[in-house]
Design a protein that fits this description.
- The protein is an alpha+beta fold.
- The chain has a domain at 322-488: Sandwich (Jelly Rolls).
- It has eleven helices and 20 strands.
- The strands form five sheets. It has a five-stranded antiparallel β-sheet with strand order 1-4-10-6-7. Strands 12-13-19-15-16 form a five-stranded antiparallel β-sheet, with helices on one face. A four-stranded mixed β-sheet has the order 9-8-5-11, with no helix packed on it.
- Strand 6 and strand 7 (182-188) form a beta hairpin.
- Helix 4 packs parallel to helix 10.
- The longest helix is centred in the middle third of the chain and has 27 residues, at 292-318.
- The protein is globular, with a radius of gyration of 23 Å.
- The protein starts with a helix and ends in a 7-residue tail after the last helix.
Length: 495
């Protein structure tokens, strides 16, 4: 702590100074186009700080460690197919860079005494005069806007937000615990009490909900984050909600909280459960602004978790969850639940190994799921530029079969099928099909089946009702994706 205080005099301007160009841009009149609710001053300042932090020496050193660890993991997990191929090896550095950017966002969220809403797990984008690197990790969903807020049980908070007329296909508020992100509680959008004008208020504290109260999240001793997911099945019509958080009670902000003390395993819950320890750690006030080098050190510590997390998540694709044995490529399991993804959703995972003239034909019965998506990621579990490639399709974008099932063709080469999910040119990669908006009491669960065929045999295995598209129609699909994607960063179209 003493070292951190000495470093204050050698750092850049405080966060408030970073806000100056952001406020200047936001004050401009934009009357002819829509403005994304994601482009808040707090978000833009967080992006500037994260980009600075990601360029520090501690982060650069940890990137070397992650790169070596991830490569060793991939060589082990994909050993049956000769390890990662050249196309995936070429994307390793980008994946590590995005993990570092995500960790730099996480570092800012660790101070739960000064909470803010931060959008992350996002692709690279440009808006308001700044170019923001990507922060995608661990099977990011092209349909989902991910926002996070730091919390701890010693404090109480109020979350406010507003939906537009076209609400997202699925919305969840999840209380996450520790640094691994296990789900402790979930509030679904369908269970929210929303005013006629689309506004809502959620209380957050260590106390249970009052009798009859719906909009409440109860924190546990090891709660660290609230993760908010807006899932957009129709990119062009649905919009993410506006969102903000305010801490309304609790001990004063402290250096302990600023350095992420409440997120440290064992120590954080111990302090949270002890009023005496909470009072003691609250004696030392926070730094007026965190030195960049200190932020880099904390970020590097967060990045170190990537060795374990990436190994665990790659294994989701390569390991059969029922037997624990390595699964063969192009085999997708029936959906199952995983609390570290989202406790209320199900996933069907696997990995593909395809030549340019092969396709993986996947048949999905969604059961009672109100939403599902079939996305492709590289072996590092990261998506590519899905805004100008059809590397994912959800149930609102795809054409159903007459019996309510869906048939998708996953391949490097365009087969001319409307329900084509491009691999983005990859011959090897991972798949994690997500099913959301599920009735927890339903027995009509989703199922998935798959088979590999050559492109010249494709017509013999596809349903007779399969819809095919012309090159112009395919381009129209891509144009619609780009237009919907641009809305997330409006009023600035992406290049």
């Amino acid at each position: 702590m003493a070292w951190a205080r000495r470093e204050v005099g050698h750092d850049v301007a405080p966060a408030s100074a970073l806000m100056t160009p952001v406020d200047a841009v936001l004050s401009q009149s934009i009357s002819t186009v829509a403005v994304s609710p994601l482009g808040t001053p707090e978000q833009l300042a967080a992006e500037q700080r994260a980009a600075q932090t990601a360029n520090t020496l501690p982060v650069a050193l940890m990137k070397f460690v992650l790169r070596a660890g991830w490569l060793a993991t991939a060589n082990r997990e994909f050993a049956s197919v000769g390890g990662p191929d050249q196309e995936n090896l070429a994307q390793l550095d980008r994946a590590v860079d995005e993990y570092a950017m995500e960790a730099a966002f996480q570092q800012q969220l660790l101070n739960s005494m000064a909470p803010t809403v931060v959008t992350q797990v996002s692709p690279p984008h440009s808006w308001y005069g700044q170019n923001v690197p990507g922060s995608r990790i661990l099977y990011d969903n092209p349909d989902t806007i991910y926002r996070f807020m730091g919390v701890n049980k010693t404090s109480s908070y109020v979350i406010t937000g507003r939906f537009t007329d076209a609400r997202p296909a699925d919305t969840t508020f999840s209380v996450l615990t520790g640094l691994s992100g296990t789900t402790a509680a979930v509030l679904n959008g369908d269970d929210l009490e929303v005013a006629p004008d689309g506004t809502f208020t959620i209380t957050v504290s260590g106390s249970p909900a009052a009798p009859g109260q719906k909009n409440h999240l109860q924190l546990t001793s090891d709660s660290t984050l609230i993760a908010v997911r807006n899932t957009l099945s129709d990119w062009n019509a649905q919009e993410p909600m506006s969102l903000s958080i305010q801490r309304i009670s609790g001990p004063p902000n402290s250096l302990f909280s600023q350095l992420g003390g409440f997120a440290i395993p064992v120590i954080g819950p111990l302090v949270t459960d002890s009023p005496l320890l909470t009072a003691l750690v609250s004696v030392i006030p926070p730094l007026p602004h965190e030195p960049r080098l200190l932020r880099g050190v904390v970020t590097a510590v967060v990045m170190a978790l990537g060795l374990q997390m990436e190994s665990k998540y790659i294994a989701v694709a390569t390991t059969d969850p029922t037997t624990g044995q390595r699964r063969e490529p192009n085999m997708l399991s029936n959906p199952s639940r995983n609390a570290e993804f989202l406790a209320t959703q199900m996933q069907s995972a696997g990995y593909f190994q395809l030549s340019d003239q092969q396709a993986l034909v996947v048949t999905v019965n969604p059961g009672d799921a109100g939403y599902f998506v079939v996305p492709v990621t590289n072996v590092w579990t990261v998506t590519d530029n899905y805004w100008d490639q059809q590397t994912s399709l959800n149930n609102a974008q795809a054409v159903p079969n007459p019996n309510g099932t869906y048939t998708f063709v996953i391949s490097p080469t365009d087969p001319g099928v409307a329900n084509w999910v491009s691999t983005g040119g990859l011959n090897q990669g991972t798949i994690s099909i997500r099913f959301q908006d599920l009735d927890p009491g339903s027995s009509n669960l989703p199922t998935v089946s798959s088979q590999v065929v050559s492109l010249d045999r494709l017509q013999y295995v596809l349903p007779a009702t399969t819809v095919y598209v012309t090159p112009d129609e395919r381009q129209a699909q891509i144009d619609a994706r780009r237009a919907g994607f641009d809305k997330r960063f409006a009023p600035y179209p992406q290049t």
